């Protein structure tokens, strides 16, 4: 190994042209025979080396004495002093010059051996670190001496100048780094054996060696070098370039898909995020100067290969999930009961497919916006899923209700996942996904609420009749008893889903109540006043019932009914004006047509009063509708019959 170092680096010193003992031409053009080089025995580490030189062997005790006689930097300083003294004389003997040159050559090998041993197992001890520190100091002294001779006449410059030891040092580091990464790929550790392919083993072993060596540099080696040499970034650049070259070779002839993903994981994630940003390296390595481990064309090719494969897999897996679910529906089987509630694994399977794909994508692809190439298949899946549920409802199989109960659980799980998904989905994709889920959810709940619409309408039929107005006929109580029986049949629906259904049912009841009220032809002021009192009582009963069933919307619906009742009770135009404006401010979908229909129920309001109230409503609507906390309600009160009522009102006026 010593001879290999000598053969590689001595020519870089511009001292010998053919090796020790050869012929050299100095700057003055005179050719002379150089004496044979005698290398200090301590360099050979008790090994016999046969070459064109004479054999030299010292026992271990003598080597130890020689090794500690003088520090390398002190030897360097003395040799430079000899050089200065020798070449400032008017004349000097050739023997003195040759001996000085031999001493430099012997010193250089000791210097390069000290550097070469940087990563040996014994290099962590204080003794080696001190040797390395002295070697680095020697290199700096030689660089300074090169500078001193730079402007001198060539015939006065020593034959060995410039030495260029710093350049030689850097070339040696490059050779060391290349050798260490090559040796790393030959490691046959248990950890390497666990990897499934040769490519993965090579990448992992080189990356692990790179990380270990850079951490060793920052922990110990760095302190042996002056700050101006920036040795950590020197090593960082060499390891980066060597690792990059090795990856280019591995990927040049194409990779299997699995290996492709692993290489991208190292290139785009583990190397830049886990190694270069390691807590001991972060901020110290100039990552902006390093760039990517792979050239852009090569990187794009691998990313496209990886993404195309992942797209196909995600699409295939999601289609398989839906097909399996549809087969279960058509088999007539009742879904599984878990904790006494109907359940389907569809949502969990879908979330697992998407989440695992996005997690892997995040570590493999640098441009995170490309995740939409995967999430678009989630969007397409949800659209297909919605259509499948709608087709199932139309088919109305015997297991429909139990299947829908399970699908409502899936819808909620998917909604929670998509709402909480911070990456991968664009806002447009998220919106389209939620729209599909909303349509699916509405379709599912309508299976339970639509059959009740007609019966709710029948139960509310006696509203505003004389028996209801005078309190002799209870209308809401029988309706709530009926709904209570229907809700008992939903005990096997997950509570969170049942709560949503109950809230929808609550809104349906109130919508039907308001429709019946606004369609009624009032006969007298006394009927309005008495009826408004019944409305308040009914609002409280309805609110209390649905609150007990777990509906959190009960309060605002009750307040809305009470506001309508108050408008019907009031007779003073100014008071009516104020109450209608307040109602419109709370409910942004309380339109002008709704205002006109409500006012048409009142007695004693002129056309001028109606126009004034409508104008005031429009003027006082909040500009920022989103600031209004009340949900949409009146938009569900359709306006076909309201238009007729408005026309009748204008004819009367």
UniProtKB/TrEMBL annotation:
Recorded coiled-coil stretches: 46-85
Pfam families per the UniProt record, alphabetical: Sec6
Keywords noted in UniProt: Coiled coil
Family: Belongs to the SEC6 family.
Record-given protein name: Tumor necrosis factor alpha-induced protein 2
């Amino acid at each position: 190994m010593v001879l290999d170092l000598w053969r590689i680096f001595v020519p870089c010193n511009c001292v010998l042209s053919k090796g020790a003992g050869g012929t050299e031409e100095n700057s003055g053009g005179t050719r002379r025979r150089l004496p044979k080089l005698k290398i200090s025995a301590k360099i050979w580490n008790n090994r016999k080396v046969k070459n064109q030189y004479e054999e030299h062997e010292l026992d271990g005790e003598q080597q130890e004495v020689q090794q500690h006689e003088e520090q390398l930097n002190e030897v360097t300083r003395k040799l430079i002093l000899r050089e200065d003294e020798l070449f400032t004389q008017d004349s000097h003997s050739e023997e003195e010059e040759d001996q000085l040159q031999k001493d430099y050559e012997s010193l250089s090998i000791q210097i390069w051996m000290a550097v070469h041993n940087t990563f040996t197992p014994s290099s962590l001890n204080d003794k080696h670190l001190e040797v390395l520190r002295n070697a680095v100091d020697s290199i700096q002294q030689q660089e300074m001496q090169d500078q001193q001779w730079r402007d001198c006449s060539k015939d006065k410059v020593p034959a060995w100048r410039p030495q260029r030891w710093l350049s030689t040092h850097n070339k040696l580091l490059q050779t060391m780094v290349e050798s260490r990464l090559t040796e790393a790929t030959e490691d046959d550790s248990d950890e390497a054996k666990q990897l499934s392919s040769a490519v993965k083993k090579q990448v992992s072993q080189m990356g692990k060696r790179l990380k270990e060596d850079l951490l060793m540099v920052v922990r110990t080696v760095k302190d042996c070098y002056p700050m101006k040499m920036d040795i950590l970034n020197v090593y960082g650049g060499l390891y980066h370039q060597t690792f990059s070259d090795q990856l280019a070779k591995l990927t040049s002839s194409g990779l299997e898909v699995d290996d492709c993903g692993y290489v991208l994981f190292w290139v785009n994630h583990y190397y830049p995020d886990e190694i270069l940003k390691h807590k001991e390296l972060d901020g110290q390595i100039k990552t902006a100067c390093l760039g990517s481990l792979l050239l852009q064309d090569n990187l794009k090719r691998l990313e496209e290969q990886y993404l195309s494969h992942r797209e196909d897999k995600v699409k295939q897996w999601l289609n398989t999930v839906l097909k399996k679910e549809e087969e279960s529906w058509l088999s007539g089987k009742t879904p599984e009961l878990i904790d006494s509630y109907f359940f389907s694994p569809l949502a969990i399977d879908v979330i697992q497919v998407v989440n695992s794909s996005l997690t892997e994508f995040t570590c493999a692809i640098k441009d995170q916006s490309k995740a939409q190439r995967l999430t678009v298949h989630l969007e397409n899946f949800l659209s297909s899923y919605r259509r499948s549920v709608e087709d199932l409802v139309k088919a109305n199989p015997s297991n429909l209700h139990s299947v829908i109960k399970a699908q409502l659980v899936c819808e909620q799980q998917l909604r929670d996942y998509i709402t909480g998904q911070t990456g991968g989905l664009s806002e447009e994709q998220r919106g389209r996904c939620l729209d599909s889920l909303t349509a699916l959810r509405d379709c599912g709940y309508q299976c339970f609420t639509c059959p009740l619409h007609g019966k709710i309408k029948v139960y509310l039929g006696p509203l505003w009749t004389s028996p209801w107005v005078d309190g002799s006929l209870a209308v809401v109580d029988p309706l709530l008893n009926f709904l209570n029986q229907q809700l008992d049949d939903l005990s096997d629906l997950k509570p969170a889903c049942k709560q949503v259904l109950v809230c929808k049912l609550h809104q349906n009841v109130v919508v039907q109540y308001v429709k019946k009220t606004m369609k009624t032809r009032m006969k007298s002021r006394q009927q309005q006043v008495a009826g408004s009192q019944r409305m308040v009582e009914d609002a409280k009963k309805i609110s209390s019932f649905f609150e007990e069933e777990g509906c959190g919307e009960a309060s605002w619906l009750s307040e809305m009914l009470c506001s309508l009742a108050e408008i019907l009770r009031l007779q003073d135009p100014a008071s009516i004006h104020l109450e209608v404006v307040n109602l419109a401010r709370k409910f942004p979908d309380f339109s002008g047509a709704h205002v006109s229909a409500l006012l048409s129920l009142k007695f004693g309001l002129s056309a001028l009063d109606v126009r004034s109230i409508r104008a005031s409503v429009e003027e006082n609507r909040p500009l920022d509708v989103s600031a209004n906390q009340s949900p949409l309600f009146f938009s569900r009160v359709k306006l076909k019959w309201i238009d007729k009522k408005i026309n009748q009102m204008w004819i009367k006026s």
